[in-house]
Each structure stands twice: as structure tokens, then as C-alpha cells.
Design a protein that fits this description.
seven-stranded mixed beta sheet, 9 helices
Length: 239
């Protein structure tokens, strides 16, 4: 069984696109449950989730929302998604089959922008190359799309809720010590570029590199090293 866990906060505009893309997936021989871990949205996010038969639970910051969903999930495979992504046709059938066949404990896919701009395709293309190169030595995935085995999720304690930034990267790195982490080749994810537009593309890329090198040479970010806005508008402010 596959459990899809979606974190949300004020996502009435984007969530229907994701849930509709899940609904339109090619049928495959596994049951699916959808858990919407919502951080007290005041718009129609929860109403939309209910209309698509999602199980609605209380969320919070990204790590808290994912952990709350993972703890109650019934599937042996968990798929964590952000509410603003879209799945291409046959995504679940292809990726879950590959995940099981390769006997992975954690995985992600490459990202394709929900944009026709060349700069967005270039930026995500470079990221995909970078992530693929370091997948063997330093498991690396954004929280927008992470597959993992439920038993390993429970065994390792899930996402570190004390981390302000990079909890998704730390999670994949830690799970990679329990088995194989890989980037799946069978499909891709349609990535929302709204963060590019709100932060500015250059500024966003510089923040990502700063976070990566900070983790590489100093350690995880338990205190903010730069200002950053999490999903739902929660702001992390550098002191």
C-alpha cells in the first residue's frame, strides 16, 4: 500500500491541481491513501482535501506535518509531497514499481519546472545533474517529493523537528545510512517555481548553495543563517 502525505497551509489555489493529478493516475495494483497534513489553513484547503477523500490531520511546520502524517500512515511506502507540485501521468505506477524493484529505502525524482522560461529549465536542469552526481555519496532531496519505506521512517524517528532548515536533506542523508538512496529514473515531478519568483532566482540559488555548504562544512542549521520563508508564509529570521 502507498501512503501519500501532503503538507499544506493556505493552498486552495495549488492543492486541486495536485489532487487532480493523483486522481488521474494510471491504476496499478496497490491501494492508495492520501493524508493531508494541514497547518490550520483558513482558506478552502481542508474543504478541497475532503472533496478528494483525503484524510485530514493537524500539521505544522514542514517536519512536524510530515511526521504527523507518517506516524498514522498505513502504507509500507510513504510518499511525501508539497501541495504545489503536480504528478505527470503514470507517475505512481512507474516510480513505485522502480522503488520496489531496486529495493530502495529512500528516493526522489528529477524536477521539471511548471514554467516555459528557459532560465527555470536551466536552473532545475543543473540541480538535477548536481543531485544525480552526489546521490551515492551524499543523499540529497528536497521535501517536495520524497519516497521512503515506512518501517525505516519509524525506526529512524522521521524528520528532525528541531531543524529550522534542511530537515528534508538531513532526513535523506540519515535514511541513506540504513540502505540505498537513489534518484528514480522512471518519471519526474512538475515543480512549482513560485519560490523562484518570490525570492528572485539568483537570491534563491545563492541561499540553496549557502545552506548546502553550511551543512557540508559546519553542520545542520539549528539556528537560522539567513532569512527564509517556509510554506504557508512562516518566516525564519536570522538573528
Amino acid at each position: 500500500m502507498l501512503s501519500i502525505i501532503i503538507i499544506s497551509k493556505q493552498e486552495e489555489q495549488t492543492l486541486p491541481l495536485l489532487l487532480d493529478s493523483i486522481k488521474k493516475q494510471e491504476p496499478f495494483a496497490e491501494k492508495i491513501e492520501i493524508i493531508l497534513s494541514d497547518a490550520q489553513s483558513t482558506d478552502k484547503t481542508r474543504e478541497i482535501g475532503q472533496s478528494f477523500d483525503c484524510k485530514i490531520i493537524e500539521g505544522g511546520l514542514p517536519s512536524v506535518g510530515r511526521n504527523n502524517g507518517g506516524k498514522i500512515a498505513q502504507g509500507d511506502i510513504l510518499l511525501f509531497l508539497d501541495a504545489d507540485v503536480v504528478l505527470p501521468l503514470n507517475f505512481l505506477k512507474k516510480t513505485v514499481s522502480e522503488f520496489r524493484k531496486r529495493k530502495l529505502v529512500c528516493a526522489t525524482v528529477k524536477y521539471i519546472p511548471q514554467s516555459s522560461k528557459i532560465i527555470d529549465k536551466l536552473l532545475l536542469g543543473l540541480y538535477n545533474i548536481f543531485a544525480k552526481i552526489i546521490q551515492y555519496s551524499d543523499p540529497h532531496a528536497a521535501g517536495v517529493c520524497i519516497f521512503c519505506q515506512k518501517d525505516i521512517f519509524i525506526k529512524t524517528g522521521g524528520f528532525d523537528e528541531k531543524l529550522l532548515l534542511g530537515e528534508d536533506y538531513e532526513f535523506c542523508r540519515r535514511l541513506g545510512k540504513s540502505g540505498k538512496f537513489r534518484i528514480l529514473n522512471s518519471s519526474y515531478l512538475l515543480y512549482n517555481i513560485r519560490r523562484f519568483e518570490s525570492d528572485g532566482r539568483l537570491r534563491f540559488v545563492l541561499k540553496c548553495f549557502k545552506g548546502f555548504f553550511y551543512r557540508l562544512f559546519i553542520g545542520e542549521q539549528y539556528s537560522p543563517q539567513f532569512d527564509y520563508t517556509l510554506h504557508g508564509g512562516v518566516k525564519i529570521i536570522k538573528h
